[in-house]
Design a protein that fits this description.
Number of helices: 13
Strand content: 15-25%
Number of strands: 26
Largest sheet: 5 strands, antiparallel
Distance between the termini: 59 Å
Strand order of the largest sheet: 10-9-11-12-13
Radius of gyration: 27 Å
Length: about 600
């Protein structure tokens, strides 16, 4: 029993006055990413039967509604994801709809409906709750194997794997997090994720999510080249192929709980193929508040064996001694200049390649590409040794498939192509390039992922959006007008956005994604904001209740649409062109030339 009855016919009820008018409607939707099936239900006054609570009030629990919709859409409950929390499978909406204390089953129907309308309009969450899932659940996780794989990856990448337990911010007990970190960095101010215990944290983590710990800005992270033995490819280490690796989870968790109870927090750090335990203690050396949760380690593990010589570093000659300097393009705001970088490219499946970049690595001199006369800036093309893009071929992918290690954004173009810009004051192009790369990456480590993009394909995303009754805008800019200017965007830039079908087509003027799969992945990851934007602003207009059967047809073949929008963009280089895929299968395009 879901508690949901037949939806009454008629216009939607509105609560409040003036700018406070709100629609008394809540729509639940569950969508199957594998089959395209969509099932929805609408809650309005009179459409549901509340249940009593132990405290004498009444409510409508959401769990039975979600379970029923998941069954109708053919979605395995364990795979359900709230778009607000895309990295947490199985997360559900809040517990239920609480009715005002005035609602009682014995009062007149009109009064009951009025109080139901108040409850529906006064919710704190979005009025359209969408959950996405897959047709089949993954196998039950083997936590020891998952931990073994993460340890093996840390060994390959030459980073730390950190398991952390901190006091929970919402209730008693500990909150657990797992992440990769660069050795020698500070303890982050906040945890990246919150789990109730170690097995739950392991079940939720993936190598891509663990890599988010490497993006914490800490310009003081030590920077070292890798020694020759760390650069040499090694066989896939034990653990990456699913071998347990000899990790005793119970022992690990018990030791960390003991440390945390004594000192406030704890970490277990996998380094040099060994677990090192340390307490976390409140950091009294900085001005901080308990809310910030700043900690320091009670003890630091031994120096990593993969650290070679320190990367030469010196204070920035232009701004290091200036009290409040403007943004400096010599050190990029770090007040220090490093003369070297370590590049790591991995597929996170067992293949990893490392390369040191030193100023004198390649005797081939840089080639001047052009000089910008107004500013005096010169643009240089560096030898292939200083380019990450050519390394993509060894992984069977394109240069635009090289992303940050968390897989969210394509690596910056000038690092892929080895383009250096030197200001009018002059300087060595290789040194300037290395200084920029080191300043942009903590520890002077450029960590790159080279494999398929996560999430649905464009065809699957288009089918999902069609099932939700919405449109999909595909935008591209052809940069043929920048050929010969390697410092400017090259190739194509993409954008994929969800839109209300009746809304005017608004061409994204500046698509920012270097690859179409990147645009698709970002659209899917931030789907929640796009869906909210399509909710009618007029409270008098009811929200739609989308339904789509799995037999509605295969995923749309978007190849023809991609070809058409690229053809349109080619006729107007430098200007964006858009094609809109409507839910009825038709499509429209932006005007041939936005300048006309």
């Amino acid at each position: 029993m879901t508690g949901v009855n037949a939806v009454p016919a008629g216009s939607v009820r509105v609560v409040g006055f003036g700018s406070e008018r709100r629609r008394a409607q809540l729509v639940f939707t569950v969508a199957n990413l594998d089959t395209g099936a969509v099932a929805s239900t609408s809650l309005v006054p009179g459409s549901f039967t509340p249940l009593p609570t132990p405290g004498g009030t009444w409510w409508l629990p959401y769990a039975p509604i979600v379970t029923d919709l998941a069954a109708r859409a053919g979605v395995a409950a364990a795979t359900l994801r709230d778009p607000d929390f895309p990295d947490e499978p199985g997360r559900r909406p809040s517990s239920g709809l609480m009715l005002p204390i005035q609602w009682q089953p014995g009062i007149p129907e009109r009064e009951r409906h009025n109080w139901e309308a108040v409850a529906l309009a006064d919710r704190r969450s979005t009025p359209w709750l969408v959950l996405l899932g897959r047709a089949t659940a993954p196998p039950a996780p083997d936590h020891a194997r998952l931990l073994g794989r993460l340890c093996a990856l840390a060994d390959q990448l030459h980073v730390d794997l950190v398991i952390e337990a901190r006091p929970s911010s919402t209730k008693g007990g500990l909150s657990w997090d797992i992440r990769f970190e660069l050795a020698g960095g500070k303890v982050p101010d906040y945890a990246h994720r919150w789990a109730a215990d170690l097995p739950t944290a392991l079940a939720r983590i993936s190598p891509q999510l663990a890599a988010s710990g490497l993006s914490v800005a800490d310009r003081d992270t030590p920077a070292h080249f890798l020694p020759d033995d760390a650069l040499t490819p090694h066989p896939v280490p034990v653990g990456l192929d699913g071998h347990p690796g000899g990790h005793d989870l119970d022992q690990l968790e018990r030791r960390m709980v003991s440390d945390a109870e004594q000192h406030g927090g704890a970490q277990a750090i996998w380094r040099n193929r060994h677990w090192w335990h340390t307490s976390l203690r409140p950091d009294d050396t900085e001005s901080s508040t308990p809310v910030g949760g700043r900690f320091r380690r009670g003890w630091e593990p031994p120096t990593p064996k993969y650290w070679g010589e320190a990367i030469p570093t010196h204070p920035c000659t232009r701004c290091a001694d200036v009290a409040d300097p403007p943004y400096c393009t010599d050190c990029y705001g770090t007040r220090q200049v490093r003369r070297g970088v370590v590049v790591t490219v991995t597929d996170l499946r067992g293949r990893t390649v490392h390369r040191n970049w030193r100023p004198d690595d390649d005797p081939t001199p840089p080639v001047r590409a052009l000089t910008d006369r107004p500013s005096g800036t010169t643009v240089w093309q560096l030898p292939e040794h200083y380019q990450v893009g050519p390394m993509a071929a060894g992984f069977g992918v394109q240069p635009t498939d090289l992303t940050d290690l968390d897989g969210e954004h394509v690596l910056d173009q000038h690092f892929r192509t080895g383009v250096s810009e030197v200001g009018h004051w002059g300087g060595d192009p290789v040194a300037a390039y290395l200084a920029e790369a080191a300043a942009a990456h903590d520890g002077a480590r450029i960590l790159v992922r080279a494999n398929d993009w996560p999430g649905p394909t464009l065809d699957e995303l288009a089918r999902l959006v069609r099932g939700l009754g919405l449109a999909l805008d595909l935008t591209v800019t052809d940069h043929a007008d920048t050929v010969g200017h390697p410092e400017l965007l090259q190739g194509h830039s993409w954008s994929v956005q969800v839109a209300e079908p009746a809304a005017p087509m608004a061409v994204d003027p500046v698509p920012t994604c270097a690859a179409l799969p990147e645009a698709v992945a970002l659209c899917h990851r931030y789907l929640y904001g796009a869906l909210r934007a399509t909710i009618p602003a007029d409270p008098e207009k009811p929200m739609s209740v989308p339904q789509q059967a799995a037999s509605a047809g295969p995923a749309p073949d978007t190849a023809a649409f991609i070809t058409e929008v690229r053809r349109l963009a080619a006729t107007q280089p430098g200007h964006a062109a858009t094609i809109r895929l409507h839910p009825d299968g038709t499509h429209t395009t932006s005007p041939d030339d936005p300048r006309s």
